[in-house]
Amino acid sequence: MLANHTAMLYSVIAKAGWFIHGRRRMSESRLRVSKIDDITQIEFIDRNILDEANIQAISDEISGIIEQASNPHLLINFANVDHLSSAALGALITINNKANEKSGKLRLANIDPQIYEVFVITRLNKLFSIHETLNDAMEQFNKATN
Amino acid sequence: MGDPQTCILGSETVELLNDRHAINELIERILALAVGTGLKDAAIFAVRLAIEEAITNAFVHGHQNLPGDVPVLVEFKVSQGEIQIAIEDRGPGFTPDTLPDPTLIENLSKPFGRGVMLMKAYMTEVLYNPQGNRVKMRYLTP
Known about the structure:
CATH architecture of chain A: 2-Layer Sandwich
CATH topology of chain B: Heat Shock Protein 90
Order of helices and strands of chain B: EHHEEHEE
Oligomer: heterodimer
Structural class of chain A: alpha/beta
Radius of gyration of chain A: 20 Å
């Protein structure tokens, strides 16, 4: 009897935990953000950046980071990204414009060759500072500050 | 009878709601058929991007003044060496030829206006009906 009650209690706790976890997931960040010196490194969690709602959430979150910094230095790591849409490019442009307005700098790194081609076709490779690796991008940040 | 230039004979037709799960499911279904005909990774990337852009345009621009539960029509036909997809929205249409060139220096920092350009860059052929509410895209295997 006691064992049954204990099992039921665990079951209720597990369901509640799943529910809370499920709700938390709804508003969960789509980014991994870390800070090295004064450079904010941002990594996308999603492999596909296509969903309008997700793109808006990503844009809002990065805009919040920019607003909180005096001259924001941002490095976006595309290592996980397989696909992106023109709406995602639009969000990156908005982020770049906001960083520039605050005398900051946005750099992009680790872009898959197929996605890099999208930047070339749209000529956005001329607008953004794109680096092959995170190290290359970090070096450029360091050169600019020294 | 619809516009002959943008119709696809013998196509499958789906009414698609603006729901990410449904959109993903349909795109994956079309791409699975394409993979089955031997389409390679680079071509899959191209076709996926073009379909995404066309569906986004249909809902975001075509249906901007319509209720959120109005579906768009997607027609597709996948055969050896050729993929055809048509997307028709229920909006008023637009004139694609009047879109500004997003690659001009003065437009580079504008955060919109690249969808149609990407569709044209990645697909073999992109045609609109005279009303501008239906687009047909063809990808021919090189």
